[in-house]
Amino acid sequence: MTSTVLDREQQATHRWHPATEIIVLVCSLLLVFGIPSPVVPIAIIAATLIAAVISPAVSLRTWAIGVGVLCLPTLIVLSVVQGLFYPGAEVTVLWEYGLAQLTVEGLAIAAQIWLRVSALVSLCAFFGLGVDSARLYDGLRALRLPSSVAYICASAIGLIPLIRTRTQQMIEARASRGWDVSSWVVRTRLLPSIVTGLFTSVLIEVEQRHDVLEQRGLGQSTQVTSLQDHHDGRSQRFLRRGAPLLTCVLVVSSVADVLPLPTADQMIWGA
Fold first, then answer.
1. 257: left (phi over 0), alpha (psi -120 to 50) or beta
2. Strand 93-97 and strand 100-103: pairing?
3. pTM over 0.90
4. How far is Cα 147 from Cα 155, in angstroms, rounded to an integer?
């Protein structure tokens, strides 16, 4: 018990404040989708990988498996649809076989979409694996969001383990009644009843939690009180104020063609 508390205290001293993590996440996503250059998502994916390696709260193996499972099928689909069957009229053909044409324009669009999706998945997976409901609530409250909004967002994170547990319990209950739940056909037939029961139980759980928090004064106090102890400092406060400003400057510079970053077409031709 003592060692667990000490481990949590050590992690808190080596981690950013949750408000800083939220600001960095939002600014990174704005850069990914606001600047039309593959350099930005590549840089963010690399930074997220480094953060997953050194983070005390995120398992690199779990993060890599989650990103790979979501991103690799997307890469295959985009490569086939855009890379080989790009519908443009004026294209630069690199390779051709029958109806399939490997074009620079198709590869550029496929690369840009896939890198943006991969950056989105990488960031969200890293944030989701490293945050719990209490950290998210503290971060949102530190950003001056209303307590009700912070509670709803934090509850969504906190309900994920509950949904997993309740789903397993429902499947085990069906199995005890003689259903062959090892068959995917049977699971598909049971899916509507499981989803209905799961939705009802989750709503009841959320309502009970909200009633308890209201009885304890949720939203009645204007003073922001953290549920956990978080490391904060002048550098993080500066980062929370400077990151949104820098993000806006970079996006506006990109829109105004002032930011000299290569496009996907230029990078493919250079390769």
1. left
2. antiparallel
3. no
4. 12
Nearest to 127 by CA among 143, 116, 115, 139: 139
| Radius of gyration in angstroms for the set of CA atoms belonging to the chain, rounded to a whole number | 23
154-198 pLDDT, tens digit per residue, is 777 777 677 777 778 888 888 888 887 777 777 778 777 777 877
Q: Which residues does residue 103 pair with via DSSP β-bridges, in sequence order?
A: 93
What are the phi and psi torsion angles at 163 (to 5°)?
A: -65, -40
The fraction of the chain above a pLDDT of 70, given in percent, is 75
- In angstroms, the CA 251 to CA 36 distance is 9
Residue with tokens 């970079």: 250
DSSP H or E segment with residue 123: helix 104-130
d(CA 178, CA 190): 13
Mean pLDDT, all residues of the chain? 78
Best CA proximity match to 260, nearest among 9, 35, 1, 2: 35
Tell me, what's the pLDDT at 219?
56
Tokens of 104: 């620079």
Cβ atoms of 247 and 33 within 8 Å: the answer is no
The closest alpha carbon to 79, from 52, 49, 111, belongs to 111
Q: Which residue has the higher pLDDT, 108 or 216?
A: 108
First to last CA, the chain: 55
Residues 6+ apart with CB under 8 A from 242: none
Q: Is the pLDDT higher at 8 or at 39?
A: 39
Strand partners, 96: 101
Q: Higher model confidence: residue 227 or residue 152? A: 152
Tokens of 166: 């309740």
